[in-house]
Design brief:
There is one protein chain. The protein has 417 residues and is α/β, with parallel strands linked by helices. It folds into two domains: 203 residues, Rossmann fold (3-Layer(aba) Sandwich); 192 residues, Rossmann fold (3-Layer(aba) Sandwich). It is built from 19 helices and 14 strands. It has a seven-stranded parallel sheet with strand order 3-2-1-4-5-6-7, sandwiched between helices. Helix 16 links the parallel strand 13 and strand 14. Helix 6 runs parallel beside helix 8 and helix 17 packs across helix 18. The longest helix has 17 residues. It is globular and about 65 Å long. It starts with a helix and ends with a helix.
């Protein structure tokens, strides 16, 4: 199986590449996927890898900790998406797309690089890449390891292939006990596994004062009114919110809605839906072009920019966590919880099931299944804001209980140094 995998990844990749040309996102930095990275550095390098935006955000606290401890090193971040790279522009020395998982492309990318350690987020198990590091005796570290039901079943199917990769890992920092048990069953070495929690939850709120909140509110041309955010929402989830919540604005109810799509390339869908529903709205980009609050007030704001959602949570009272009304499995809810937002989800939370269990135990969230339930929740929130403020405070307590993962990971990796 390993030989077949290597043949496919080395020989078939050039025939797959043309499919990347059909989309702008695929064409961007395409040569980097073939290991054409150009000159990077002669310094020792810590290489971090995370699949996309959420995973990159998840390892930033660890990158910062390593930068403080090793100021003379360079820091390389790779991702499988261009948007993932943009998130970390100010945090690392070098940014590149991860090469296709063939030895040819990996060797080309790493030629003349002095890589000291390799860190990768969640379940980015690339067999050729890990074999390459193992042969060069470069320590490799799994960070924020999560093995969902779907991932576990897939890895079981190809156990022989992934077992060999797991055996090469120096440390495995797992997000929870369930994932630790599963990675052990797949063939990881037991004494290298530690449950550390997830470093993505270590991120402290960037908005720390009322003055900052008011400045942000003014820049968004919003009022000091109840505010709902649809955070990292996917197209299939928008219709229930459109009919269940945004339609209430026609009745003169005083609240605001910020819509933050998960993928900016899907903005056309949200624009079309809002226009066809005759709902008055403004886009964040138009505000920036027009100069902050000069565009006037509108109760619906479409966030069509990158990197602003975390700060938006400082203005909102109720947060819907996207990827839960469709079969995505849910995105990070604790970023909103850190700002004491009351949280609500759809039923599809398999990627964040243990977090949701913690939130439910603390009575710190609501679960929604239909547009009618959405309508009732929004009406209840507007009629009894104190109830949901208290729910948001309990959600923040759950966030606080998940702090400290980066310190635990650093201890696991560097305790013997």
């Amino acid at each position: 199986m390993k030989l077949l995998y290597w043949l496919i990844m080395n020989l078939a990749t050039p025939f797959v590449a043309p499919f990347f040309l059909f989309k702008a996102r695929g064409r961007a930095r395409l040569l980097e996927r073939f290991g054409i990275w150009g000159k990077l550095s002669d310094n020792k390098i810590f290489w971090f890898h995370a699949a996309s935006v959420g995973e990159v955000n998840g390892i930033l606290s660890l990158i910062r900790s390593c930068r403080k401890r090793f100021p003379d090193h360079d820091f390389l971040l790779t991702s499988t998406s261009v948007t993932g790279l943009k998130v970390a522009e100010a945090e690392v020395t070098h940014l590149r797309l991860l090469p296709f998982d063939g030895i040819i492309w990996i060797a080309l990318a790493t030629k003349n690089l002095d890589i000291e350690r390799f860190f990768f987020g969640e379940t980015e198990l690339w067999p050729s890449l890990l074999t390459f590091f193992n042969r060069r005796r470069i320590p490799t570290h799994m960070i924020n390891g999560v093995i969902s039901d779907t991932t576990f079943n897939r890895y079981l199917t190809f156990r022989k292939l992934f077992c060999a990769s797991l055996e090469t890992l120096s440390t495995l920092s797992m997000s929870n006990q369930t994932s630790a048990d599963r990675i052990l069953a797949l063939g990881a070495t037991e004494d290298r596994i530690v449950v550390t929690g997830n470093t993505k939850y270590d991120r402290a709120p960037s908005i720390q004062s009322q003055e900052q909140i008011e400045r942000l509110r003014k820049s968004l041309a919003l009022k000091s009114a109840p505010t709902l955010v649809l955070a990292s929402i996917h197209p299939p989830e928008f219709e229930p919110w459109l009919s269940g919540a945004l339609s209430l604005l026609d009745g003169g109810i005083d609240f605001q809605v910020i819509i933050a799509p998960r993928h900016k390339e899907k903005l056309g869908f949200f624009l079309q839906k809002l226009r066809s529903s005759n709902i008055a709205f403004k886009t964040r980009s138009s505000q920036l072009e027009g100069g902050d609050s000069d565009n006037g007030y509108c109760p619906v704001l479409l966030l069509d920019t990158l990197g602003e959602l975390e700060q938006i949570f400082s203005l909102t009272d109720l947060a819907f966590i996207g990827g839960t009304l469709c079969a995505v499995g849910g995105h990070n809810p604790l970023e909103a919880a850190s700002y004491s937002n009351a949280l609500c989800f759809g039923p599809e939370t398999f990627k964040i099931s243990e977090l949701v269990a913690d939130l439910k135990l603390k009575n710190a969230c609501s679960v929604l299944n239909s547009s009618e339930e959405i309508r009732k929740l929004v009406q209840s929130w507007l009629q009894d804001p104190l109830k949901y403020k208290q729910q948001g405070q309990r959600a923040r307590e759950v966030w606080l209980s998940h702090q400290g993962a980066a310190d635990r990971v650093m201890h696991q990796i560097f305790a013997g140094d």
